[in-house]
Amino acid sequence: MTTMISEVYDAFISASANEEKAKKATEAVADHEKRFDPYRQGINRS
Prior knowledge:
46 residues, mainly alpha
């Protein structure tokens, strides 16, 4: 399942981005954020 960040998507749409491109860019941002989850979990345990 692909995650989207609705605030980022809304910002792209408000900036007159093409809907499909806005969706793809938002998914890329969400995927990028997921890369850091293991590190965040380690920091929160400290």
